[in-house]
Amino acid sequence: MNREKVFKIWLSSVVGIGYKSYFQLMEFFKKAEEIYRAKEIDIFKATGKKNLTEKIVEAQKLNPFEYVERLQKLKVSVYTLEEEEYPSILREIHNPPVVLYLKGRLNLKDKFSIAMVGSRKATYYGKQMAQKLSYDLSERGITVVSGLARGIDTYSHLGALKGRGSTIAVLGCGINVVYPTENKKLMEQIGEEGLLVSEYPLDYPPLSQNFPLRNRIISGLSQGVVVVEAGAKSGALITAQFALEQGREVFAVPGNVTSAYSAGTNDLIKQGAKIVTQVEDILEEFSFREDLKMVLTENEELFLTEDEKVVYEFIKEAPRDVEEISYILNMKMSKLNSILTSLMLKGLIDRLPGNKYTKKIF
């Protein structure tokens, strides 16, 4: 790691440094190391803020290289906003994080991702829908992004980990802070199989004001946001609002109209959010995206049984009549109908008039 990056990480770790103040200081001093060595009066000239100036001066007592050494021992990587590795989809949002702390095996850059969010106090229905949709997305190679909170977030991560894809957990605290404590094992699993992401420095506590800000990263890393279950005042609705501001697609799972737990999601649907009852509802909205087509093509056969693969390979070549499929593949009609239904539910084939089947064009 070069010296300048070390000092950029130091600067970003100062409490009160955000996108605007970071670049204000960098424009004035040109280099982060110069800020670390600057006099108090010069820092005040750059910021115009006494409180922030005092925090930077206090932070000058810290050794940036010791902090980076700690990061390395914890196997935590850091991307600064100026680096090529920083995800371009996040860089384009309003007020992007100046740095990202990362731990895991997943490559963050240019992944096709869908965010799954919802209430901490989730119902059985909400938990089941979160887990099923996330699993189905993951099986197709799509990365599921959520916030590791109780309820919907937890079940979204669990569903994604059971599939063949992966998951990203965006934290509202330092990347080495376990919150909530009951998700310790899940956090460790994501850190090994998926990716933990935070904009907060090591040891930073999970303050209540962190989480609404955290939500802009969840939506910012995703092509679309699915609100699975949310009450009228759920924080998940903040994520949906960020998604709209960032030009992302917003989806909602309908719930019982008499249930307060679904008041927020049902209201989103009334406002124009797309209804989601199965994973195909999400995929259809992105059918024009070449990057999604590539992901689906790479993963389309990974989650099929051997019989399903045989039938699918035959249908891929050209539209096929059901009797032709049965005759050529020497397969009983009862078994074939079951396989065709499964392939349709998995979003791989469509039924045409005349009892024919064809490969689904995403």
From TrEMBL:
Pfam families: DNA_processg_A, WHD_DprA
Residue span(s) of domain DprA winged helix: 304-355
Organism per entry: Caldanaerobacter subterraneus
Smf/DprA SLOG domain residues: 78-286
InterPro entries referenced in this protein's UniProt entry, alphabetically: DprA (IPR003488), DprA_WH (IPR041614), DrpA_SLOG (IPR057666), WH-like_DNA-bd_sf (IPR036388), WH_DNA-bd_sf (IPR036390)
GO terms under biological process: DNA-mediated transformation
Family listed: Belongs to the DprA/Smf family.
Domain of life: Bacteria
Gene (name only): dprA
Record's protein name: DNA-protecting protein DprA
